[in-house]
TrEMBL record:
This is Transcriptional regulator SlyA. Residues 1-144 form the HTH marR-type domain. InterPro entries: HTH_MarR-typ (IPR000835), WH-like_DNA-bd_sf (IPR036388), WH_DNA-bd_sf (IPR036390). Keywords: DNA-binding, Transcription, Transcription regulation. Pfam families: MarR. PANTHER family: TRANSCRIPTIONAL REGULATOR, MARR (PTHR42756), TRANSCRIPTIONAL REPRESSOR OF EMRAB OPERON (PTHR42756:SF1). The keyword DNA-binding applies. It comes from Paraburkholderia metrosideri. Gene3D superfamilies: Winged helix-like DNA-binding domain superfamily/Winged helix DNA-binding domain.
Length: 145
């Protein structure tokens, strides 16, 4: 079913506009909350993914977080410069780069679960439990292929 047509499409009423605006709002609020840790919301995703074992290579992180490989490389460079992660070549396949958090990276990642929920809960404060569950369901449906 087509929900938009050239006749009824307006930028500010499109789903894409609303999702982008919501994303930008969350990024701004999350970045402000994470400033004390010296990381951004995008870097938060990398650190948590590594800390929780969801990914171990730049390629896996790119796929999981939906970040192109060029941007991922630049973000990993910054995190490595900050001393939060280390790169090493795989012994089995020299083309593969493995990522591990440093002790400092693990410490930063350990603080994130106390910060991120505060930001998200503040933004979701007007939602009932049912509305929150429905929002998650609909977003997952939107993201499914």
């Amino acid at each position: 079913m087509n929900h938009y047509s050239p006749e009824n499409f307006t930028l500010t009423q499109s789903v894409g506009f609303s999702i982008t605006k919501a994303r930008n709002l969350l990024i701004t609020e999350m970045d402000a909350a994470l400033k004390e840790l010296g990381i951004t919301s995008q870097q938060m995703g990398i650190l948590l993914s590594l800390a929780r074992g969801l990914a171990t290579t730049p390629f896996e992180l790119s796929r999981l977080l939906g970040i192109d490989t060029g941007l991922m490389t630049r973000m990993l460079d910054k995190l490595e410069t900050k001393g939060l992660l280390e790169r090493s070549r795989s012994v089995e396949d020299r083309r593969v780069v493995n990522l591990t958090l440093t002790t400092e990276g693990e410490a930063v990642a350990a603080h994130i679960p106390a910060i991120a929920p505060v930001v998200l809960n503040r933004r979701l404060r007007k939602f009932t439990k049912t509305e929150f569950d429905e929002l998650r369901r609909l977003l997952n449906k939107f993201l499914a292929d």
